[in-house]
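> example.struct
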C-alpha cells in the first residue's frame, strides 16, 4: 500500500475508517472523470430476484437466452466475486454536445457515437481499483461493465445514485439517464449510501412516447417489442410486423429517454473518448444508404456498433428503407 503523500494525495487509512475510505474512493472516482459514485453493501437482492423471475417468466427477455442463465449470480454479488463486501457504482455521462445533423438520416443511439463504453468505463474502473488498492486501502476487487450477470441499475439505485424510472433506466437528479453505469466489487466494508425516492410521480411521458409499446407497465420492458432489442440484440431477420415500428432508428433507440423531463437541461459529457469519429454526425441519409464495408470498418472501428457487424447494420438499413 502506498503511503499518503508518496506521489498520491489520497489518505492511507487502511481499513480503519469506512467513512474516510468511502469519501476517498468517491473523490478518486470524481478525479478519474466519473459523474457519480455511490456505495452499497454487497448482499443478495431478494426483491430484485423476484422481479427478475417474474420478468423472465413472462418471456420479456425475448431471444436473450443468456438472461435465463445463472439468475442467482445476478442477485448475489458474492457468487460473482467471492468475499465481496461492498458494491461501488459509478456513473459516466455520455449525453453528446452535438447530434446528427441530417434530420432524415437513420438515427443512431447516442451511446454509440463515440468509443465503445465497455472499454472506456472498464479502463476507468480498473484505474479506480488500482488507485484504491495502492493509495487508499489494500483491497481486492473486480470491475463489471454490462457484461457479467449483475443488476447494475439496481445496485446504482441502492447506492443512492438515482431511481429506476418507468422507462426502466436509472435516472439521476441533475444527470438524467444518459449515463453509463460501472460496478466495482471490493472485499472491504465501507460507509454505505441510502437509496433516494422515486421522482417519476404521475408522469407517463416515456410510456406514451414509445412507438413500439414496449413499456408494458411502469418499469417493465418487453424486450421483444423494443427497438433497441430488434436493432442490436436480435441476430435474425426483423419481422415484417415490426418493421413499421422502427421508424428511422438504425441502432438502438433513445425515445423513452429523450422525452424524460429529467434529461432536460443536463450538461453534455466531457469524455474525449466519447467524441464521434470525424464525419459521423454529418452523414446524410444518402451517405448511410451507400455505406460500404470499408467505410463501416473505418467509422465504427472503436464503436459499440461493431457488435452487430456490417451485415447487421445493412439489415437495419434495409428495414428502414422498406
Ligand atoms: S428504447 Fe425505444 S422502443 Fe425501447 S422502450 Fe424505449 S422508446 Fe420504446
Ligand atoms: S418520462 Fe416521466 S415516467 Fe418516464 S422515466 Fe421520465 S419521469 Fe419517469
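> example.seq
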Amino acid at each position: 500500500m502506498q503511503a499518503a503523500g508518496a506521489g498520491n494525495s489520497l489518505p492511507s487509512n487502511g481499513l480503519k475508517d469506512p467513512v474516510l475510505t468511502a469519501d476517498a474512493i468517491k473523490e478518486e472516482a470524481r478525479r478519474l472523470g466519473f459523474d457519480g459514485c455511490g456505495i452499497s453493501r454487497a448482499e443478495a437482492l431478494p426483491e430484485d430476484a423476484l422481479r427478475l423471475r417474474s420478468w423472465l417468466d413472462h418471456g420479456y427477455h425475448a431471444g436473450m437466452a443468456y438472461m435465463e442463465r445463472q439468475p442467482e449470480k445476478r442477485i448475489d454479488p458474492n457468487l460473482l466475486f467471492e468475499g465481496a463486501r461492498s458494491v461501488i457504482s459509478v456513473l459516466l455521462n455520455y449525453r453528446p454536445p452535438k447530434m446528427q445533423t441530417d434530420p432524415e438520416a437513420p438515427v443512431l443511439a447516442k451511446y454509440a457515437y463515440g468509443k465503445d463504453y465497455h472499454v472506456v468505463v472498464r479502463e476507468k474502473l480498473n484505474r479506480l481499483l488500482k488507485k484504491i488498492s495502492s493509495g487508499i486501502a489494500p483491497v481486492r476487487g473486480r470491475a463489471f461493465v454490462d457484461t457479467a450477470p449483475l443488476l447494475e441499475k439496481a445496485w446504482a439505485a441502492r447506492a443512492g445514485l438515482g431511481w429506476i424510472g418507468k422507462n426502466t433506466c436509472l435516472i439521476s437528479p441533475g444527470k438524467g439517464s444518459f449515463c453509463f453505469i460501472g460496478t466495482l466489487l471490493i472485499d472491504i466494508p465501507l460507509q454505505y449510501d441510502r437509496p433516494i425516492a422515486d421522482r417519476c410521480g404521475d408522469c407517463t411521458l416515456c410510456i406514451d412516447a414509445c412507438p413500439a409499446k414496449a413499456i408494458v407497465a411502469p418499469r417493465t420492458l418487453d424486450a421483444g417489442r423494443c427497438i433497441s432489442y430488434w436493432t442490436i440484440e436480435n441476430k435474425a431477420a426483423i419481422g415484417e410486423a415490426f418493421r413499421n415500428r422502427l421508424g428511422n432508428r438504425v441502432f438502438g433507440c433513445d425515445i423513452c429517454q429523450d422525452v424524460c423531463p429529467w434529461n432536460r437541461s443536463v450538461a453534455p459529457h466531457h469524455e474525449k473518448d466519447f467524441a464521434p469519429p470525424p464525419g459521423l454526425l454529418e452523414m446524410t441519409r444518402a451517405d448511410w444508404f451507400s455505406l460500404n464495408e470499408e467505410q463501416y470498418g473505418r467509422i465504427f472501428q472503436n464503436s459499440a456498433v461493431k457488435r452487430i457487424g456490417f451485415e447487421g447494420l445493412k439489415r437495419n438499413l434495409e428495414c428502414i428503407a422498406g
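> remarks
The CA atoms of residues 139 and 317 lie 48 Å apart.
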